[in-house]
Amino acid sequence: MTTHPKLEPLPAWEKTFCIEVGAMPWERFVESKKNLYEHDKVFKYDDSVGLTAFHEAKQRFWKIYHGFPCENKLPSNAADLYIDDVDWNSEIDRELFSEIKSLTDDEDGEKDNAKEMNWFSSLLEEIQAIGWDEFEEAAPH
Fold first, then answer.
1. How many Cα atoms are found within 13 Å in the side-chain-facing hemisphere of 126?
2. Exposed e or buried b for every residue in 110-124, given b needs 16+ CB within 10 A?
């Protein structure tokens, strides 16, 4: 007999993190996650540095939200961390630009890049997320 893990309600602070730090409404976040499965490249992309930064930001937010001291602060130069890597006098390759522009203008080409859904994916649409709106963790005072 297969047992499924019990679904845990989403803490209110995670929604608040998404809205305040991510500057994204919760509903848009949920909808974006649903659309990830349409594009293969999203899952192949290795963004381990971004994932680490995300987890650190989430940890900082959780500590501040719950009133704990936060030792893991952003460096004061975080906004300018890679500014020296920008070539402000770069030349645009007109041929490459035209090629890229023609690809983005081609709607059929974009549809070819979308992952074809198989019979299993239609079952995923029938699964309803539960518990996300049922529990609101009280904010600390």
1. 5
2. eeeeeeeeeeeeeee
Q: What is the pTM of this model?
A: 0.42
| CA 73/CA 71 separation, integer angstroms | 6
Burial 57-83 (b: 16+ CB within 10 A, else e): ebebbeeebeeeeeeeeeeeeeeeeee
* pLDDT tens digit sequence for 58-100: 998 999 899 998 887 776 766 676 777 777 788 888 998 888 8
Task: Report whether 131 contacts 8 (CB < 8 A).
Answer: yes
- Could you tell me the pLDDT band of residue 139, with boundaries at 50, 70 and 90? low
